[in-house]
Amino acid sequence: MSHSCELELRSVRFSFEPGGWALQIPELVLGGEGLCGIVGPNGSGKSTLLGLAAGLLTPLEGGVRLNGLSLARQSRKHIARHLGYLPQECPALFDYTVGQVAAMGRHAYGGALEPTAPDDIAAVARALAAVQMEAFRVRRLSQLSGGERRRAWLASALAQEPALLLLDEPTQALDVHHAAAVMEVLARKAAEGLRVVVVLHDLNLAALYCERLILLQDGQVTADGLPHDILSENRLVSAYGQHLEVIAHPKTHQPVILAKK
Amino acid sequence: MIKNRKIWLLLGIFGACLVILPWIGAEKLDLRAVLGFLGGESSPDSQIFFQMRLPRVWLGLLAGGSLAMAGAALQVMFRNPLAEPWTLGMAGGASVGAFVARVCPALWLSLGPLNTSQALALLGAAGALALVLAVARRQGGTGGATILLAGVTVGVMCGGAIMVAAGVVSPDKLAGFHRWLLGGLDAADWGAVGTLAVISVPGGVMLAALTREYNPLGLGEAMAAGQGVNVAHVRRWTAIGAGLACAGVAAVAGPIGFVGLLAPHAVRRWAGPDMRIVMPGSFLVGGALLALCDAAGRWAAAPLEIPVGALTALLGGPLFLWLLMRKR
C-alpha cells in the first residue's frame, strides 16, 4: 500500500448524450495527497468525474492515465490492484455476511467470498479492523444499520488494498456520527499512506478532513487547492447560490458553512 | 472444507441418479439380461436399457444441469433472483427456432451432431433475450418484475407462434409434438445426448469459466468493476453461454421451465451464495432434478408418460410465485 499512485486526466471531455451537458477537464492530477475532496453542487459532475477517473466511464476525448499508462489499455484486474473505487450504492443481490462483502475486495488477487489464501485472509482482517467491524464478520447485511452497511462496503474497498482509493459520497444519508466515523477511517488510512479521493456533498466534512479540495461547477473545475482557499464565501456563493454563509469556527478557526435564510 | 463435502454429496446424488434411474420405467428390466449385453448377448431388455433408458437419463442430467447453470448465471448477471432461461423468454425463443427447423425440410442441414435446429434455436434464444432486454432497459432495468413480465410474455408469444406454425404443416411432421411443446425427454437417443454434448455443454463450460467473476457482481456492477471485473465481457459471455445451454436443450427437448430457478435457489439456501459452490452445485442438482422428474413422469402413469416439463412447471411454478411475493 505504500507504493505511490498517480492518476492523470488530460483533455478529458465526457457527455451522456450528444449536445447535452458535458464535463470538461483540461488537466487534473489525483493521488498526490492523503485526502482529497471533490465538492460542488448537485449535477456539477462529481460522480461523473469519479467514474471517469476509475475507468468506469470512457471519455469521448482525451484520456486517463494510471502511473503513466492509459486506463483503457489495462485489464480491470490490473487496475483494481492499484486503484480502488467505491460507488454511492452497492445493492446486494443476496444477503451476504460482512466478512463475505469484505472478501469480495480480494477479487483482483484471486480471492473469493470465503478466501483460503493467507494473504487474502489477512487483508480482509485488516480491512474489518480498519472499519472496526471485526465483531460483525458473520453478521448479515440485512441485520445492519445504514451506517454499518456503508462501513462494510468500505471494508470491501479497503481489503482490495489499492494505492489510491476513489469514493463516491461514502457519507451520503448518514447521521453526523456515522459520517464522521467513515471520515475518521479514511483519515487514518490516509495517515498510513493510502491516497484517498472522495466525493463529498457535506462541505463541513470536507473542510474538516481534506487536505485538498476540487470544486466542480457545471462540468468544470472552477477551483482546486487548499480547503481554506476553496471554501471562501465568494466562491461558494457563486457555485451554490445565495443561501449560504461561511463563518470561522470559534475554536478551530476552520471555515464552517451554514445555510442562510 | 465443509463446502467440498457438500459438493461430494451432490456428486453422489448425481451419480446415484445415473445408476438407479435407468431401471425405472414401463418395462421391468431383468438385471442379468441387461448385464448380458456387456458379455455380447443382446436381448430386448438390454436394448431398452442401453438404447432408450440410459441415453434418456444422460439427457435429463445434462439438460437439467445446463439449464440450472444458465439460471444461476443469469440471476447474477441480471441481478434478478427469478431470472432463468424460461422466465426470460429464451426457452420459448429457442423452441420456435428448433420447431421451424423441424418442420421446414428446406432448412434442414446437418453435420454430425450439429444441425440447423440447434442453430435456429440459438438464434431464437438470442432474439427473445434481446427483445426482453430492450423492454426491460426502457422500463426500470433488469432487476425488477418488468423483465420477467416481458420474458414470460415473449415465452407465451413463442408458444402461440409454434401453435400457428403447427397448424399449417402436415400432421405427419408433428409426431410427439404436444409432448415436445411442454418439454419432454421422450425423444431421447444417443444422438440427442450428442447434441447436448456439443451445444449445451460448451455453453455450460463458458459459464463455469466465469464463476469467479460472478461473486463481486453480487454488490452491483459499479462495485464489481472497481474490484476488477470486466462487466461488459462477463455480460457478453454469459448471454452466449446461457444461450447455447438453452438452445441445445430446446432443440432436443423443447421448452423446459423452472429447473434454472429451482436448482440454484436450493443450492444457495443450503450452501450460501458463493458462486464457486452455486455453479457446480446447480449443475448437479439441476441434472438430478430433471432426471428424477422424468423418471417420476415415466413411472407415475406407466405405461403412459407425463412430460417432464409439466412436472417441473408444477414444482417450479409455486416457488416462482412464492419468491415473487417475498421480493421487496
What does this protein look like?
Chain A is an alpha/beta fold and 261 residues long. Chain A is built from 9 helices and 12 strands. In chain A, strand 7 (164-168), helix 6 (176-191) and strand 8 form a beta-alpha-beta unit. In chain A, helix 3 runs parallel beside helix 5 and helix 4 packs antiparallel against helix 5 (146-159). The longest helix of chain A has 16 residues, at 176-191. In chain A, 45% of the residues are buried. With 328 residues, chain B is an all-alpha fold. Chain B has one domain (2-326): Orthogonal Bundle (ABC transporter involved in vitamin B12 uptake, BtuC), CATH 1.10.3470.10. Helix content of chain B is 73%, strand content 1%. Chain B has a two-stranded antiparallel ribbon with strand order 1-2. The longest helix of chain B has 34 residues, at 44-77. Chain B is globular. Chain A binds chain B through residues 51, 54-56, 75-81, 84-87, 89-96, 100-101, 104-105, 107-108, 110, 112-114, 153, 156-157, 160, 166, and chain B through 3, 75-76, 79, 81, 143, 212, 215-220, 222-230, 268, 272-276.
At the fourth level of CATH, the homologous superfamily of the largest domain in chain A is P-loop containing nucleotide triphosphate hydrolases
Task: Enumerate the strands of the largest sheet of chain B in spatial order, edge to edge or round the barrel.
Answer: 1-2
- Ends apart, CA distance between termini of chain A: 46 Å
> How many distinct domains of chain B?
1
Tell me the name of the CATH class of chain B. Answer: Mainly Alpha
Order of helical and strand elements of chain A: EEEHEEHEHHHEHEHEEHHEE
Total helices of chain B: the number is: 15
Overall mean pLDDT of chain B stands at 86
CATH topology of the largest domain in chain A: Rossmann fold
Give the uncertain stretches of chain A in residue-range form: none
What percentage of amino acids of chain B are in beta strands?
under 5%
The number of distinct helices of chain A, counting runs of at least 4 residues, comes to: 9
- The averaged pLDDT of chain A comes out at 92
Largest interchain contact: A-B, 38 and 28 residues
User: Domains counted in the coordinates of chain A: how many?
Assistant: 2
DSSP strand (E) fraction of chain A? 25-35%
Characterize the overall form of chain A.
Answer: globular
